[in-house]
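Title: Prediction job returns without error message
Component: structure pipeline
Severity: low
Priority: P3
Assignee: unassigned

Description:
Job completed but the reporter wants confirmation the result is attached to the right record. Sequence as submitted:
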Amino acid sequence: MTRKSVITALLIHLSFSSAVFSAERLSSPDGKLDISFSLNDKGAACYTVEYAGKEVLEPSEFGILCEGQPFYSDFKLESASGVQEVSQQYQMLHGKQKNCTYKANRRLFTLANKEGKVLKLVFQVSNDSVAFRYILPEAEGSYAVVNKENTSFNFPSDTLSWLHPMAEAKTGWEKTQPSYEEHYAAGRPVGEDSKYGQGWCMPGLFKTADDNWALVCETDVYSGYCAARLLKADDNGAYKIGFPQPEEHRGIEDSVYPRQELPLKTPWRVIIVGDELGDIVESTAVADLASPSRIEDTGFIKPGRAAWHWLRYADSSSNLEYANSFLDFAEKMGWEYMLIDCYWDNNIGREKMEEFARKAKSRGVKVILWYNSNGFWNDAPMTPKHKMHTSSARRREFAWLKEIGAAGVKIDFFGGDKQATMKLYQEILEDAADFEIMVNFHGATVPRGWHRTYPNMLTLESVKGMEYCTFNQENADAQPQHSCILPFTRNVVGPMDFTPVVFNPEIRSVQLKTTLGFELALSVVFESGIQHFGLVPEEYDLMPDYVVSYLREVPVSWDETNFIKGYPGRLAVIARKKGQSWYIGGINGEAEKKNISIDLSFIDNLEDKSIKIITDGKNRSFEYRQLFGKKMKSLNVKLKANGGFTAVLE
């Protein structure tokens, strides 16, 4: 415990000596994770979090302000429930885990402020997460506006952090920010300022001096609330919930402050906690706490792989020549989809697109089409425009897409986290589901439980992805480390459309720093309900047969995920199971060689399996070997600098 921790704990103890009630505790089913909730002598609500007896969060604040009505001090405890067991089992149509089980302990505290107005606090603690939300009870015909949250996360001052800076609204290319496309401030002491002065995006990763890990995030964000970010509260490690900037999305047309008919329910504030990084990477807490699927007929939702022309050939390639070439490529590779990007409406036209989509479908490949989200909220010139910004426009377009046999849409350039933007996301997903259309959001917010609630949302970008590596050398130089941070941060909370797997060492005069083995491994290390591979038709004949075979078979939705080893920015090795097969991907984020050993004891019936390994060979080539598990207990792999490997056990 730090000096700050000792002093703070002493002060809290002294203030609690005259508290309204002594600390109330709630523990996880296994007893390791614990939250303590108290009111001090001023009636302020505070909490602490411990894991295995070690402090994760020092005393942190609760509370909200609703239209001048304070719910953060002068509280009295009206009632406290006993411990209730929460248990649910559900299936995900895509993601890191197919069959999910959530077990938690729950308590409900009813508080009243000095004016007698009631606020309820709900806590749920599972073996890997602490979650809480606020509820304002029902008052007939009434609405409430939340002007501020006092919620804070007070980490010990010697904690390290991996945080993604929030961009300033209406900045960047054609005023499209914020779009969650920055590099992380990696392994930095807590309490530092964000470089843009707008706080930090969720999720945020933290490592305490006691070697506990915590990921702060939120879930079950819906049209009745905004998405939040983390703001610096002091120089010592405290962060608080922040609301969007006034300029985001449609600017002053939409309020920053969420307004909701009572009863008002905030999203879950979630802290995923563990003493190993696997507790973070493998967690399904964001889906566990999200609302169940609101789509009854999910038969049209099919995860898969996609060919995509834009990464290599940019805007001008949205034409029939490239479309036909990439259709041939997708068909050869056995991929389910192909994405045709911006300007298809001008370069191909709707009539010819109808013909092409039907032709592609007849050959076993379904088309996904790009759209600009905007009415007027950004200056991005790409078309089609004005097709997704209102329900009537969307539904006409979705009806046409269904008619021509298109599978989905990629919708770009949202630029904000206000309640109105959350409502737009949700309504797009609902309208799309009515016409059996799958959705990919780009230039967008991070997943906030929607991959469970609306499983037709197969993926979101919300990452500084592969396209940035084609823009300038600085981004390409940072890619190895950046890619080794994402499995521990962004990709934990939901699907991520990084658009991985690029074999050409040079794109648009930019030299990639990653090896072929590294790029191939991203197909396993990164999870997305649809993977848009950065390969082109000309590479088909250049790839070894075993690489072609691998790319034809690699899944994108998984039955199980097992974190093997790694550290943010340095190394990530992840195993994922599909059916009876295990796929292992490993990437080296550092410019130095590494020898790693992988314990294979987690794999059932190992003695009956063959092991196909693809690593880096000499002079930017692949190397392949096949082993048999009969006498194997571990797998030893040599990683090149910024290199990687894949292994398939079946």
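Comment from assignee: result matches the submitted record. The radius of gyration is 25 Å.
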